[in-house]
């Protein structure tokens, strides 16, 4: 597992922040109106930036991983790019099994006995990764690691360790804030 150099990490943080941090008036999930919004889909839909993110995330994946489990919705394009870079099959993990067709929670072959690294765009509390881990483990998959682009959790908010999950991130909210400050100076 190669580590990303500090300069490369800082450059990636600056580019993601420049592209994704929007200023204006935005209504957030809680209903509050805020002057700034981070639109993660802007890096996920940019093929050059998405590839750079995926290349950095590939470095965080255990060598014994069988499947890359992209969490719906933001983890799917990242897992797809990581799959292309590594040759590891991608697994698309829904928030709930679909009610028709195959009625699967995870789109791909059987996960029983397979070691899955979950792929998430942003971890705040870890809720989606927690739910996916529980569901995949019920199907006899081994899930021990979540890799994410950005860990923006507040101290103590990410409780994935309670499930024995390790969270590995390329960037943190602090990295993006430092990039923003550096751009302003």
UniProtKB/TrEMBL annotation:
Keyword Transferase: yes
Superkingdom of origin organism: Bacteria
Cofactor entry: Mg(2+)
Residues that, per the record, bind orotate: 124, 152
Transmembrane parts of this sequence: none
EC main group: transferase
Species for this entry: Terrabacter carboxydivorans
Pathway: Pyrimidine metabolism; UMP biosynthesis via de novo pathway; UMP from orotate: step 1/2
Family designation: Belongs to the purine/pyrimidine phosphoribosyltransferase family. PyrE subfamily.
GO terms of molecular function: glycosyltransferase activity
Entry EC number(s): 2.4.2.10
Assembly with partners or alone: Homodimer.
Presence of the UniProt keyword Magnesium in the record: yes
Keyword annotations from UniProtKB, A to Z: Glycosyltransferase, Magnesium, Pyrimidine biosynthesis, Transferase
Its job: Catalyzes the transfer of a ribosyl phosphate group from 5-phosphoribose 1-diphosphate to orotate, leading to the formation of orotidine monophosphate (OMP).
Reaction equations catalysed: orotidine 5'-phosphate + diphosphate = orotate + 5-phospho-alpha-D-ribose 1-diphosphate
Residues involved in 5-phospho-alpha-D-ribose 1-diphosphate binding: 29, 94-95, 98, 120-128
SUPFAM superfamilies noted in UniProt: PRTase-like
UniProt name for this protein: Orotate phosphoribosyltransferase
PANTHER family the UniProt entry points to: OROTATE PHOSPHORIBOSYLTRANSFERASE (PTHR19278), URIDINE 5'-MONOPHOSPHATE SYNTHASE (PTHR19278:SF9)
